[in-house]
């Protein structure tokens, strides 16, 4: 957030910080957990095979069977491991940005590159 504030004029810093925090909240806390749950369900469905929704997700199915629990556990485990790939993507994005940010800050502050 500090870099974000250094790239805007002083009168715009509060707005820039608010937009930055809003984006982090919406994508990180809001959509991140929904996406993780969706990905877990898709992976569980692929582990179980045909009939997953009818046998494991139905309200009338009663207690989940061992096969349903194993498929759900495997799906969640793989979804959490795949989520790590998004962290690698974030690191790569920050690294690419770091190569250009110093020039942007220098231009903003009126310093030579």
Oligomer: single chain
- Hey, roughly how much beta strand do the residues contain? under 5%
Task: Report the uncertain regions.
Answer: none
The separation of the N and C termini measures 22 Å
Mean of pLDDT = 85
List the secondary-structure elements in sequence, H or E: HHHH
Helix content range: over 70%
Determine the structural class based on helices, strands and strand pairing: mainly alpha
Question: In this structure, how is the largest beta sheet organized?
Answer: none
The count of helical stretches stands at 4
Write up what this structure looks like:
The protein is 81% helix and 0% strand. By secondary structure, the chain is an all-alpha fold. The chain has one domain (2-109). It is elongated. The two termini are 22 Å apart.
Fold topology:
Elements: H1 2-6, H2 13-48, H3 52-57, H4 66-109
Helix pairs in contact: 2-4
Q: TL;DR of this structure?
A:
By secondary structure, the chain is mostly helical. It contains four helices and no strands.
Key features of this structure:
113 residues; mainly alpha; 4 helices; 81% helix
């Amino acid at each position: 957030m500090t870099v974000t504030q250094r790239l805007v004029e002083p009168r715009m810093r509060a707005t820039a910080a608010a937009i930055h925090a809003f984006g982090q909240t919406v994508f990180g806390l809001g959509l991140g957990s929904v996406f993780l749950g969706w990905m877990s369900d898709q992976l569980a469905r692929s582990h179980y095979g045909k009939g997953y929704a009818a046998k494991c997700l139905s309200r009338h199915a009663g207690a989940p069977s061992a096969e349903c629990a194993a498929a759900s556990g495997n799906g969640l485990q793989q979804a959490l491991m795949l989520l790590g790939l998004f962290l690698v993507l974030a690191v790569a994005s920050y690294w690419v940005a770091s190569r250009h940010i110093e020039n942007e800050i220098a231009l903003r502050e009126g310093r030579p590159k």
